[in-house]
Amino acid sequence: MEGKKWITKDLLSSKYMPMAKLYGIRMTQAIIYLMLLLGIYMCVLKAGNCEFAFLKLYMGELATIVFLGGMGIFFYALTDQVVVGYMIPLLYYMLNIAISPNKIKVFYLFSMSMGKYEWKWTLGIAGVVLLVAGIAIRSKRK
């Protein structure tokens, strides 16, 4: 299994395009697809007569998605282990369920349930920073 891992890395690193640009394109595509899927899901909710502030919730959920995804990519880049990249955001999500919002304040994932929509700005910005840092670390690693 270890040999296949190196073959894939060798194949990717042999491309003419820089790895950072390749990762950036893939990340942009993933975010666009997530935006579309979230939008479709929320439109279905609206069509089912659900009442909510569409734009506020859409942007808040998008910030949460980017934050958890950025956290996963960042820890994957640090450890070079895909499982760690999945487990850290999952553990953080579980921590948010179990801990008081007062302990983690602006990094609380469920802040919109408390009416704290402005906290989502911090999550969104932190998510973008983690994405960029993860791509930068990953593209430097050979």
UniProtKB/TrEMBL annotation:
<feature type="transmembrane region" description="Helical">
    <location>
        <begin position="119"/>
        <end position="137"/>
    </location>
</feature>
<keyword id="KW-0812">Transmembrane</keyword>
<keyword id="KW-1133">Transmembrane helix</keyword>
<feature type="transmembrane region" description="Helical">
    <location>
        <begin position="23"/>
        <end position="45"/>
    </location>
</feature>
<feature type="transmembrane region" description="Helical">
    <location>
        <begin position="83"/>
        <end position="99"/>
    </location>
</feature>
<feature type="transmembrane region" description="Helical">
    <location>
        <begin position="57"/>
        <end position="77"/>
    </location>
</feature>
<protein>
    <submittedName>
        <fullName>Uncharacterized protein</fullName>
    </submittedName>
</protein>
<keyword id="KW-0472">Membrane</keyword>
